[in-house]
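Quick question: who can interpret this fold?

. . .
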Amino acid sequence: MISSYSPEQLWNLVPSEGSDLFRSEQRQGVVVCAEDTGDLMKALIRFGVTDASQAPAAALFRRLPRDWDEACLVGTMPPDDVRQVATFFAEAPLDRWVEEHRAALDAEIVELGWGGWGAEAWMPQLRRDAQAVAELFHAAAASGEAVIVKIDA
């Protein structure tokens, strides 16, 4: 069971972005990279969620996993949490939220220090990454799997 793995073991389970193994696993849908849009995706969800019933799952996605290891920058989201997040993503109108919250997301980009990244670049990237993350959570939930969250610094 993955919950018994050390942070170092978790780190080693997820290939580094850009490696051949990463690209292979990405094609299989078992890893996703949201390097440029991870924080923006969290902001999108923060801006988009207005229904109180969505708030718990949205919060699970936006925060670091409970077992987060700051030294290794890795942690796991257990299967029950993955199912909640997958259900949230299945119902969330992510593309519509990108359009509706464009101005707020533009402001978020400036706040994150990414000035100069125009909407013509970030909007399609955010849409692609959000869809890939939603698909990953859906597949993991369908298999009863945990999700490893890793920052590849």
